[in-house]
Amino acid sequence: MGVTRRTLRLGAFLLTPGYHVASWRHPTARADGGLDFAHYRELLHTAERGKFDMFFVADGVGIRTPYRDADELSRWGRFLQFDPLTLLSALAVHTTHIGLAATASTTYNEPFHIARKFASIDHLSAGRAAWNIVTSVTDAEAQNFNRDAQPDHASRYHRAREFMEVVTGLWDSWDDDAFGYDKESGRYFDPAGLHVLDHKGEHFSVRGPLNVARPPQGYPVLIQAGASADGQDFAARWAEVVFTAAQTLDEARAFHRGMKRQAAAYGRDPDQLKVMPGLFPVIGRTRAEAEDKYAVLQDLVDPVVGLGLLTQLLGDIDISGCPLDGPLPELPPTEGSTSRQQLVYDKARREGLTIKELYRSLTGGRGHRIVIGTPEDVADLMEEWFTAEAADGFNVMPPVLPEGLDDFVDLVVPELQRRGLFRTEYESSTLRGNLGIDRPARGAATELPLGPGPFATQE
Ligand SMILES: Cc1cc2nc3c(=O)[nH]c(=O)nc-3n(C[C@H](O)[C@H](O)[C@H](O)COP(=O)(O)O)c2cc1C
């Protein structure tokens, strides 16, 4: 057998009607696309034609944009969307190969619900489900779940660790071949194949077993995107795909190396953890055309929304009292996303930006790397990051849908394929198979230490 060449993994991060904050106002955008199933189905068919590994649905359990009143909120657009798991269930029956990844929070769910729903989607899609594990980052979400404010950062990750123990334990309720449905002997399943969890811990008391058979992939693919010390430690222990935001090649390379090292410290094969930074591509047949496309979107940015987005990315730190043409002030710590706050702060200082320049630089990529240019320019950047081991793949964030996804699939994918960097056919019918991530045997999750590991902050 020949040596298999390392190739890119691609996620389609399809925030409808586009990743750019003003996308909903773009002439070609479906402003009401968030609740239009036919629109999603069409997008998925395009992504599947482009051989994307997976489609990813981000989510919050509530409206997460900061706003003072209805007037401000009405300028934001784009917060209506389907519940992600409901959407994926429907998409599962309209697609055949693309992975289906959804966000669900460990802070505002019970593990039994999550284990059951993702196991169901894995069965419905014949092995294409993935869970983006988040601890959530806003008080707005906490306020929909009986609290005034979110639990602090460390306690959210503390609960998340135990949550994972329970969820994976529930997926391991049954041997893979436990269910024989043997009419002859009268045994629905083999009694030796049942493993009752009986978990009693600090946050959860869950007996099990799950009333769904072991998922086709063993466990749905586990994704995580926390980049704080605790977030990285959690990802090193549990994640098989790590989403991240990076501005520069050096930043991305350091993160990639750090994640692999931390996974190895847990006793894992670092190759079984794929790091996928976000990429916001604005694609034109010429550079001038790409610049024009970006300018059209930037002209549609409402200043209220621009400043609100910056507030959000800083972890809900109010900077409305600061002059827009002055620098970003020193910031208090946030209980929201500490890593994104740091990234934005570093960018402002590194590039010497005023607050207005800073928010205008974030309206597209929100902290993810932006590339504006020809298909070759986009492929060059992807190749550079990939070969420098700064990325195992990318989460592609089209600025406006469906146009931005069409551009990527029709213009960039063929260029990546020509360079031998990306598949021309799916290798497998399961997401694990395409990502090159092993199917875990029953009980695999309990074989590693639970953490926190040596790199986490003290809890
Ligand atoms: C590509 C990407 C997608 C994310 N999607 C979501 C999401 O859908 N919902 C959510 O609450 N957080 C999402 N996050 C935020 C992370 O889960 C995490 O909370 C954040 O990076 C802060 O982590 P930290 O507190 O460890 O720094 C996403 C982050 C990235 C980089």
From TrEMBL:
GO terms for molecular function: oxidoreductase activity. Keywords: Flavoprotein, FMN, Monooxygenase, Oxidoreductase. Its EC number is 1.-.-.-. Residues 21-386 form the Luciferase-like domain. Residues 434-459 are annotated as: Disordered. It is an enzyme of class 1 (oxidoreductase). PANTHER family: ALKANESULFONATE MONOOXYGENASE-RELATED, C2H2 FINGER DOMAIN TRANSCRIPTION FACTOR (EUROFUNG)-RELATED. Belongs to the NtaA/SnaA/DszA monooxygenase family. This is LLM class flavin-dependent oxidoreductase.
